[in-house]
């Protein structure tokens, strides 16, 4: 995803670009309210923002583990 796309989504969802980047890189989880706004802006179900291990989210980067680095 391009930085400009992240910026546009962040502005529309009412969060900072750095906050959305942290969410996409799985360094933080959005609040329920932000997850709802991200759902509205991206069409990706809010549960996929809140619980990406149970509900796949194509925008999030996969987690790295000890086996694959």
The class by helix and strand makeup works out as: mainly alpha
Order of helices and strands: HHHH
| First-residue to last-residue Cα separation | 21 Å
Mean pLDDT: 91
Total DSSP E strands: 0
Helix content: 40-55%
Strand content: under 5%
Give the radius of gyration.
12 Å
Largest sheet: none
Low-confidence runs (pLDDT<50, min 5 residues)? none
Shape category? globular
> What is the count of DSSP helices, taking H or I runs of 4+ residues?
4
Describe the structure.
The chain has 69 residues and is an all-alpha fold. It has a domain at 3-50. Helix content is 51%, strand content 0%. Helix 1 (3-13) packs across helix 2 (17-24). It starts with a helix and ends in a 19-residue tail after the last helix. The model has no long low-confidence stretch (mean pLDDT 91).
């Amino acid at each position: 995803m391009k930085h400009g796309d992240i910026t546009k989504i962040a502005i529309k969802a009412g969060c900072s670009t750095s906050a959305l980047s942290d969410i996409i890189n799985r360094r933080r989880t959005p609040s329920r309210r932000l997850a709802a706004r991200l759902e509205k802006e991206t069409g990706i179900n809010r549960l996929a923002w809140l619980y990406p291990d149970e509900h796949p989210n194509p925008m999030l980067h996969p987690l790295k583990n000890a086996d694959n680095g």
